[in-house]
Each structure stands twice: as structure tokens, then as C-alpha cells.
Write a structure and sequence with these properties.
- About 3% of the residues have low confidence.
- The radius of gyration is 46 Å and the shape is rod-shaped.
- The protein is built from five helices and ten strands; from the N terminus they run H-H-H-E-E-E-E-H-E-E-E-H-E-E-E.
- The protein is of the alpha+beta class.
- Strands 3, 4, 6, 8, 9 and 10 form a six-stranded antiparallel sheet that branches. A four-stranded antiparallel sheet has the order 1-2-7-5.
- It has a domain of 134 residues.
Length: 238
């Protein structure tokens, strides 16, 4: 009998079989709840869950509105800063005249170009026209004041400055034309003064930010903005 009992062996439980036993089947152990990611955490109280959901949506909407308004405020601030920069570099060309020598107080005629703006003016083109026709320094006196020229067309007493293609600083001036009598002969000065009513001017100039304007220097008329100042070969520039 003893030998029979020794030969009879109990079946062995494999490790896999042990792991297969659910924790819930073991007496005295509580089942472990599964916590899955991405699942909503609810209180189990329906009205409280509804309040929480509405609150989340409300906060999200408020955050979105605040972000949009902040973006708009930043855009407005950038636009205002750009306008301030443009305003601080704005040139403004004007044409004036004088009838006396600032040093000697003697009679003469001065045609003066001024930059009355707050920024430098890049003068791409400037024209002096007589009866609507653009003139150069070589043709101007013959067109306007031939009767005041001496024999052979001498231009004594005529002083000029070219400004096309130059940069005029803010609050600066340039004397475009100076006509002064020589001795007691003031024929050229008189002829020039008579011709002033038929003279006109045109300019195209830009700021340092490459914003450009055209003007005919009409009183009460602002310079007109243009995309660029065009200068063609053969233009009669001053």
C-alpha cells in the first residue's frame, strides 16, 4: 500500500495556470478598478456633471475670445507704430521766393526750395516750367527773359543750383535761382520778375522709407502719393 501511494503523484500547476486565476476569484481580495486614460471623470451626480461640462465649454470660449482680442490689439499697436515711424520721416517740399540779398539787403530775386517736413527728402525729379514747358538751366533764360540778356546772350547775374537726384535734409533750403543786377543794369532782373507769373514747378520725391509723392506746388493742394518716381531719359530736370 505504501508503495502505491508513493507512486501516485498529484498533478502540478503550471505558472501560466496560476497567472490565469483572476484576482476576483481569490477569496478576501477586492477587484482592482481599471483607470483608463482619456475617459471623462464623472461624479455620478448628473446635474453636477452637466455644470462642470458647461463650465469647461464656457471657459474655453472666454479664452478664445481673449486670444482673438489680444491679437487684434497687437495688430492695432503695430499699425500705430508704423504710422508714427512714417510721420516722423515725412518730407514736405515747398517753393518760395525772396526779393532782397540776405547779406547786403540789395535788390535781387531768389527762388528757394525748402523741405518743411520732419524727414529728409530724396528728390528724384524737379522741373521748372515756363508756360507749361520744362526748362533746363541752358534754356530757361532764353525762354523767359531773352530781352534782359546782354549781347550774345550773356547770362551775367544768373546763379542756379540743380536739385534733381539729391537729398535735402529736413528744415533745409536750397536756392534754385538767383537773379541779381550788375551795377545799374537790372534788365535781366526786371525780365525775370515779369516772367514769374508764367512759371510753374513740378517735383517727385520720396522719404527714407521709400514712400513717394508728386506735387505741382499748388497752394491748398497736398502732394499726391505715388508708387514710385519715374525719370525717363531726356527729361528736362533742374
Amino acid at each position: 500500500m505504501e508503495d502505491g501511494i508513493e507512486d501516485e503523484k498529484l498533478p502540478e500547476q503550471s505558472a501560466e495556470t496560476s497567472e490565469a486565476i483572476a484576482e476576483g476569484e481569490v477569496p478576501g481580495l477586492m477587484p482592482v478598478p481599471e483607470h483608463g486614460h482619456g475617459h471623462e471623470h464623472k461624479t455620478g451626480i448628473s446635474w453636477l456633471d452637466a455644470v462642470i461640462a458647461v463650465s469647461v465649454v464656457f471657459i474655453s470660449v472666454i479664452s478664445l475670445v481673449v486670444s482673438i482680442e489680444h491679437g487684434r490689439s497687437m495688430e492695432k499697436m503695430v499699425e500705430q507704430n508704423q504710422k508714427l515711424v512714417v510721420a516722423s520721416t515725412l518730407p514736405l517740399l515747398t517753393v518760395g521766393s525772396g526779393m532782397l540779398d540776405p547779406v547786403t539787403d540789395k535788390p535781387l530775386s531768389r527762388l528757394i526750395l525748402a523741405n518743411s517736413g520732419v524727414g529728409p527728402a530724396i528728390i528724384e525729379r524737379f522741373e521748372i516750367r515756363y508756360k507749361g514747358v520744362a526748362q533746363t538751366t541752358d534754356t530757361f533764360l532764353k525762354a523767359c527773359c531773352a530781352q534782359g540778356l546782354g549781347k550774345g546772350g550773356e547770362r551775367s547775374g544768373f546763379i542756379y543750383s540743380n536739385v534733381s537726384g539729391s537729398i535735402m535734409p529736413a528744415r533745409d533750403t536750397e536756392e534754385l535761382i538767383i537773379i541779381k543786377p550788375l551795377g545799374s543794369d537790372d534788365k535781366l532782373l526786371q525780365a525775370y520778375e515779369r516772367a514769374r507769373k508764367d512759371m510753374s514747378f513740378h517735383a517727385c520725391y520720396c522719404s527714407v522709407l521709400n514712400e513717394c509723392w508728386e506735387t505741382d506746388f499748388d497752394h491748398g493742394k497736398r502732394p499726391q502719393p505715388v508708387k514710385e518716381c519715374k525719370v525717363a531719359p531726356g527729361d528736362k530736370l533742374w
